[in-house]
Amino acid sequence: MTSSASANSGLGKLIADLELRLTELRFIEGIEKVEHVPYQSGDQFWVRFIRPFDLGKLDGVVKKHGYKIVKFASLPSKLPRGLAELLWSGITHVVVEKISGGSRFTSNFGFEPEGIAKLAVDLHGPYWLFITTREEGIQLLYDYLGLKYASPSPPALTASASVKPTTPPIAKPVQPAAPIPTALATPAGASPSP
Looking at the domain assignment, is residue 123 inside a domain? Predict the structure, then answer.
């Protein structure tokens, strides 16, 4: 993992085994590029496809996992290209867990609902993007591609974490010995030694 990924709390916590995911997907047919994109709002995992998504197939995968695909920014996407690039990021669909009717309506105008993954058109090329910030999005992507999804491995224990800290035993306070008066310590008639 890069130093920026370990420094940011976004992707490192949400997508496990980042380097493994990058390597596994990089050489799949139809994928042009796989990358980790750091943002101030949170890191993102981008997969750039050469061909458009099969929305019917993706919709079946998404429904199988209990999510929904919502169309996004249908109005800004119809603007002339120069103006659209100013107002629209290229996102065409958002995968959400739940959505209200009001959020579905406002998503047409470019107000993005909270989701686990996004589908986008590259505004400067022929590519399609799958963007996610969470492990659930990775699982949807693997199912869409027909790959076997393996749950992330648990974080490795470090040497300091694997050794149980020991607490020192609590010592009982020792009563100081009471000083013996000199009159009692010496027998009667004997003088104390110098």
Answer: yes
